[in-house]
Amino acid sequence: MQVEKNSWFLLLLTVVVGVSLLLLYPAASTHAAEKSKEGIPSNITYNVCKSAEITKVSYFFEKYKGKPRLHFEITIKNVSPEMKRFRVNVYLPEGPSSGGFYPRKGKGIEPGKTLTRKFPMYFDKFPSGFMLVVKEL
Up-side HSE of residue 14: CA atoms within 13 Å toward CB? Predict the structure, then answer.
């Protein structure tokens, strides 16, 4: 009788632990940077006008004014049928921001052409995310 009670108790305990692990597994597997439907982490946001397309975004450290600083390198493509000029802004959740005109001087980017620019930021660590805004001028 005692052996039968212990086996039922062990079976019940195993089932309870197994069910609780199955219920807790999805919560344990969530990532800090969940991806959206497009495959972009949720802490990275793009707000791009219809006449532009972002073809490359990279960030890295490079010396700027004597110290290693965070730099963003962004490539913009003009997808409209006419020459356009754009304003690009990069915002970090930690506070710093940067940006500039595409092209810096001149009339604009030819239709179908791309332009790459590098933006230094006064920030000394990798960001937790960023927001990239492209506006047509």
Answer: 6
